[in-house]
Amino acid sequence: MVNVTRNRPLSPHLQIYKPIPTMVMSIVHRITGGALYFGTLLVAWWLIAAATGQAYFDLVNWVLGSIIGKLVLLGYTWALLHHLFGGFRHFVWDLGYGFDKAVSTKMARASIIGSLCLTVLVWVIGFLIRF
């Protein structure tokens, strides 16, 4: 009996494909979408703490105000904004534009640069308003 599967080509995977900006942004868009579930639970936790009482609200504010809490909130802010920019990219594609390779690559790069810049801007404004 001859093994017919031995000569079959393997399914393409990351070892075959060269990562391009649109592919990377597609993967990151999915990851940020998943991260938003966790971040939204943090927002809900904060709102529930506000409705529960002053002592519990102070505890949650302390946790979210710690260094680790701020890093998590910074990541949540970036994930939210990056997912928003990815949504805009998909909206443009839904309208039938931006399919050209050069344009889609520019949109992918703009989404990462825009989300990073806007995250920094949001946090700078947040710190300026706080004090």
What's the CATH C level? Mainly Alpha
Give the overall silhouette. elongated
Q: Residue ranges: pLDDT <50 for 5 or more in a row?
A: none
Which structural class is indicated by helix and strand composition?
Answer: mainly alpha
Element pattern in H and E: HHHH
Mean model confidence by pLDDT: 91
Q: What is the strand content?
A: under 5%
Fraction of helical residues: over 70%
Q: Main beta sheet, described?
A: none
The total domain count is: 1
Predict the CATH topology.
Answer: 3 helical TM bundles of succinate and fumarate reductases
CATH H-tier superfamily: Fumarate reductase/succinate dehydrogenase, transmembrane subunit
Our count of helices gives 4
Oligomer: single chain
Number of strands: 0
Examine the secondary-structure arrangement and name the CATH architecture.
Up-down Bundle
Computed CA radius of gyration, to the nearest angstrom: 21 Å
Straight-line N-to-C gap: 78 Å
Cofactor: heme
Organism: Rhizobium indigoferae
Family: Belongs to the cytochrome b560 family.
Pfam families: Sdh_cyt
